[in-house]
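Format notes (please read before filing issues)

Several people have asked whether sequences and structure tokens are stored in separate files. They are not. Every record keeps both together, in the order shown below: the sequence lines, then the token lines. Line labels are part of the format and must not be stripped during preprocessing.
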Amino acid sequence: MLRNGRKEIIYERISSSIKDHYMPSRKMNTPFMDVDSYIKTFPKESQKRLQELRQLIKASTPEASEGISYNMPAYKLEGKPLLYFAGYAGHIGLYATPSAHEAFESSLAGYKKGKGSVQFPHNEPLPLDLIARMIAFRKDTIMRQQKK
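Then the structure lines:
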């Protein structure tokens, strides 16, 4: 659908109960200024999970810069991507680059994943220990690359 010359994404096929429970109350093309404004667009339960992930990242790598990239929370270390995350209807997506996903392939075996992404379903606890190890892996990789 075009409105004001811009393409808009419409979620008509998602039932209102699912949309109200999981989907952020925003259009996907709305740019976010910071991570707080991103997280606030989600229902309370999703906000708790996103904040839990955010706090883990900040505690694991306090020197990482936090921002928005690709319209989702993004963390950089030494100017290099550490990881990204995003909320979706049925899961939280974690994007820790293909190298991290390859390194933790066996640990991620029970999750739906792509080349550089993994989905943590809302109906399961976040695997915080696994995510912390992935963050440490990315941090070590970036620091080693900086020493070259």
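For reference, the curators noted about this record: Residues 11 and 54 are 27 Å apart (CA to CA). Confidence is low (pLDDT under 50) at residues 1-27.
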